[in-house]
Amino acid sequence: TGPGIDLDRGEVLYARDCARCHGGRGEGAASTFYPRIGGQHYSYTVRQLLDIASGRRGNAHPDMTRIIETYSARDVSIVADYVSRLGGTP
Prior knowledge:
mainly alpha
């Protein structure tokens, strides 16, 4: 998990920008190719989000790319921390 700072904002960002595809608990949806992200390592998630925002990781869904490009570095850290604390099961 991350530093545990501003998890309330992480919950808001996740609910607004991520839950529609990745599920309320980060459980993902294999049938539509949305990966499970709940409980994923904080540092891994930060790296993936930064790589998506920079274009380094080119296989992200275009909707996700558009969302992540608007995030500040702090928002990336906060949402990654929140995701790392999700159980990943509905």
